[in-house]
Amino acid sequence: MPHPIAYMLAKELHLLVAKLPFIQLPLWNTDQGC
Question: From which domain of life does this come (predicted)?
Answer without folding.
Answer: Eukaryota
